[in-house]
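From the pipeline queue, job 12 of 40. The input is one protein chain; the requested action is below.

Action: predict structure.
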Amino acid sequence: MTRFNFWSPVGIGIGLIMVALAIVIGGGFSGAKGFISIASFITVFGGLSCALLVHFNPGEFKQSLSLLREIMGTSSSRMGVKELTETFVMLSQKARRDGLLSLEDEADELEETFIKKGILLAVDGVESEMIKEILLAEIYSEEERKRRGLQIFEKAGEWAPAWGMIGTLIGLVLMLQSLNNPATLGPQMAIALITTFYGVVMANLVFHPLAGKISNAIDEEMKRKKIMIEGIVGIQSGQNPMILEEKMSAFLAPEEKVSVPHSRLEEKSFTFEGGRENAL
């Protein structure tokens, strides 16, 4: 189930309201009308869109839309670091008690396909180093694809002010052509500057903030998957569940470092046979 993350659109909306209020307070409603220019908007948005189409391919646009949907929605079934730690501790207990093959049925019930893939590789007897190489190659490939989609937002933020300046130059040229009519110079100069205004607002209120949020989301997802790799390798190598828990807890923030309840941890007893200590 995915819940809509409304903070980004709310932030953009409030930012636009604040800008509009500043304009109205400074120049009144009559002055605010001067900030509305269809020609300026077409210059910035249309020119920017065409520049992005030249620079990027359709696959990268598709990836950027996927990233935008990802940050606008949060999955309630997506496990955080704490939930991942508890899941791997439970899987580790079962593997030590019933063997790795017993995890095949458990893997089928996992919603995280990345964990499922790693567990099945372990069940198939793939060595831990090879599992790590396979999964790392997958996450680095995924990161590269997402970074290409992210570049669209970064470039849009970089180029929007430039297209605003292009619109301003167009307006200045038209203004200079009307020097014989001084009464039109002021309004034409205002329209010329509005284009730069549009470009700067779009860059700093929409594109750069979205690019930053997407970049943070990519970093967080890569971190989650690296934690998953640690858990999968720990299970494959037969690490003690409590040691695995301590190892994975290193990724938690201090306030999140709450141990899995002891009732859920594997109980151990020891006997001596032939002078040797054996774990049961």
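Job complete. The first strand starts at residue 2 and ends at 4.
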